[in-house]
Amino acid sequence: MTRIWSRWSRSSSRADPARAAATDAWTRSTTTEKLALMDTNTHRGNLPDRRGTGSLKWDLARPGEIPLWVADMDFPVAPAITAALSRRLAHPIFGYTGVPRSYREAFCAWQSSRNGWEISPEQLVILPGVMPAVSLLVENYTRPGEGVALFSPVYYPFFEVVEELGRRVERIPLAVENGGGDDAVDGAGHDPGHDAAAQAQGPRHGIDEDALDEALARSRMLLLCSPHNPGGRVWTVEELSLIARAAERHRVMVVSDEIHSDLLFPGETFVPWLTLERAGSGHGGHGGHCRDVALLAPSKTFNIPGLPTALAVVPDEHHRRDLERVLHARKQYMSSILAITAAEAAYTGAASWLDETCATLYRNYLLVRDALAGEKAAVYRMEGTFIAWIDFRACPGWEEPAGSSERFDETARAQGVWLSRGRQFGPQGEGHMRLNFATSPELLREGMVRLRGALAAFATGRRG
Predict the structure, then answer these.
(1) How many Å apart are CA 227 and CA 233, to the nearest integer?
(2) Closest of 99, 202, 225, 87 to residue 154, by C-alpha
(3) Is 12 exposed, middle or buried (CB count within 10 Å of its CB: 0-12, 13-18, 19+)?
(4) What is the spatial distance between Cα 206 and Cα 176, in angstroms, rounded to a whole number?
(5) What is the edge-to-edge ordering of all strands in the sheet holding 387-391?
(6) What is the pLDDT of residues 199-248, one digit of tens each?
(7) 464 part of a folded domain
(8) pTM score above 0.70
(9) Structural domain contains residue 4
């Protein structure tokens, strides 16, 4: 079995010198030093009460319960967003509205600044959301019965879309590295990082090259989740290049869901799929056109999933026109006035808010990891996102993994804390749970107290 692992922290050749120097300093600092460098006041204390607002996350839970499941954040959005929405709402007409070029330009400028990714506004296709886009791409670029590959465990709507459209799911089980140690190296043989305390904690997902090759040999398309959900892996250029070579070898179209790409822990670097060499090569027998598509959205980054909009980056003009034709045929070309207003404001005025948010998320990840350090639960090492992946199979009461996440979910809810069941994310999720830690540290601490209480109750066979 061939595996490839990433470093804990990386600098980017695409970053400017000042940012590269800051990244290097961050990489060499200890966990304690990292925490001292962060803004300790971001998103702390009492957050707005979301009950009674139609929140899926909060309104399904009973009063007093702590929901750590649905993947949105409890943090107020950036002031730039609320200000822009207030200005637009002051105008009393909400008629048919086109997408202004300024929005496309704002997104392109954001990608250039954050990732060194140069995109032309003409390469963008505006979509109603990432998952509607995934559904549209699967339906129009594969045929019923054909294989669509995806890494597993993975965000469950991926395989729901594939199955509901009559395609065949080809799961690629992610390899698991357990803890630090001599084998914790990436494909180039680099040390995983300087922070030994962080490295010693928890397993981490990696790519099983053999499983990847076998699945792509039976597939027409690969749905890539980058960064990966669940587990918080930010794939390295070595890992992505390995995937690209396999996709090229088997003439497979790649759809890269990069919705979490801005949610990086300090010191991490995101590599956009379309910056790989593969993006400029022909494949798939389509006349030399690159058919790969990257899907992005402001929703996760800026906590505005209730204002859905997304962007597809489609480098090839022929493919882009084809996608626009399909959107027009389905009458999915209209965009929400408020969604576009919020998104443009975010990309032009919320960079500092995001930096502070990512620092808070990193602190919260450490809080979760440390809170479970005395248990036999294994919190996967994360490099980004705000949704932890936890392996409970070594905990008392979990001796029979089948159905264990469902049973434990009942116990946890009886203790007043909600998580997501691991089995939702595929067979590899059995015995695991997903936890959303994008809330205040104070609420998260109480949630972890209740989670430990649930583990104690589960160990004795109690459900409440």
Answers:
(1) 6
(2) 225
(3) middle
(4) 6
(5) 378-379, 387-391, 432-436, 420-421
(6) 456 899 999 999 999 999 999 999 999 999 999 999 999 999 999 999 99
(7) no
(8) yes
(9) no
pLDDT at 188 over 90: no
Q: Which domain holds residue 218?
A: 91-349
The reply to whether 444 and 323 lie within a common domain is no
